[in-house]
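cache lookup: miss for this entity combination. No prior model stored, computing from scratch. Input as submitted by user K.M.:
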Amino acid sequence: MPNIETIISPALFHLHEEDIEHKNVVVIDILRATTTICVAFANGAKEILPVSKPEDAAAMQQLGWIAAAERHGETVPGFDMGNSPQDYSAERVNGRKIALTTTNGTRALQMSKSARNVWVGSFLNMDAICKALLSDNHDILLFCAGWKDKFNLEDTIYAGALARKLSAQFIIEDDATLAAIDLYMAAENNMAGYLQKASHVNRFKSLHIESDLDICLKTNSTDILPVFTNGSIYPQNP
Amino acid sequence: MPNIETIISPALFHLHEEDIEHKNVVVIDILRATTTICVAFANGAKEILPVSKPEDAAAMQQLGWIAAAERHGETVPGFDMGNSPQDYSAERVNGRKIALTTTNGTRALQMSKSARNVWVGSFLNMDAICKALLSDNHDILLFCAGWKDKFNLEDTIYAGALARKLSAQFIIEDDATLAAIDLYMAAENNMAGYLQKASHVNRFKSLHIESDLDICLKTNSTDILPVFTNGSIYPQNP
């Protein structure tokens, strides 16, 4: 039976890198990169290219792409949009390609590139992620993007929710995954309330992230599976 | 009001290093270094010198010290004792000085050396640790030694137990501490049972750590406060 491990910070990625070419990675950045990527594809975006620097996104603008850049939770001045899922309406993104740079999510995707599959996970496409993991049936790394290498509650709780759903079909022995499941169980009856105490939510209070939080918790609102392959993300339909 | 942060792996220590000279650090390695240090002092040991390599401990043996060395959970062949609290009876350690090297605990102590105070915490001296932290009233780092940089449940749960006791007198805003408290609350009614699922306990099943686990959970069995200062650990009596 394959197993599930959880990476609770990018700074611990190296402990799980061995044999990564045989593992499926779910990259998790609930507030907000991986949520926003799911929203963009649900609203018709064709491709999302994660880039390291705002300049790289700006360069793609010349080629007709939408350029999206977020730093420290805010849209970088001069860019079409930032990291808020509310920016990615069908009116703006349907049929478009987007170059995106974010504080944590982009980096976690790049770090995972050698994996068997790299999927973009959020509450919005939770069942689609589960289905893909079950059907491929290989070892799983749940990769929490965190906040500048710090552990965060919202990514860990999502990892716990996924691991719990998969616990009958996968071995779960590492303490990080066991902890994630218990934290999810402490949160599940009132996710929004629970996450109100998360440092990330507090950090963004001034940036009106509260309305983003509701979007981030819309479980199974899409069945699209975003796949990171050859350096870019494409929507895979069921 | 000062705050509490929790370092859930030595690999994340660098995120908390700033201003460490104004912070009190509690080094936590429940299975088993910090538990064993408390047992040794409770049984009359005079000093414990944490050293990096077994050779360094062996060198002290020439000077009449007890040499203790653990690697991968086992006593290194040729040494007086390893890392099990059961080795540190009054018969063996009373009035003695001990040079000790362990997989994770020694390293966490060395990393913390610039802090305002470095105290050695375990369930055995929990109230003594709380009293010291309350009376000194500075920012706190709860430093979980982990297992080869991996997150572990037992150290995190102890951090949560401490943080919860101190929550009225300290600000708790970082997600790692909030998570540690919730994990402690999930575990508190059946600590031994809860920790049975921890990877560390499973790792040591073959080494008879189960009997050590009972010792590790003997809350407030001593009021000694081990202090790491000038490179060595001394018992501070109340």
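stored under new cache key. The interface with chain A takes residues 8-9, 11-12, 15, 148-153, 156, 173-176, 178-179, 182-183, 185-186, 197-200, 202 of chain B (CB under 8 Å).
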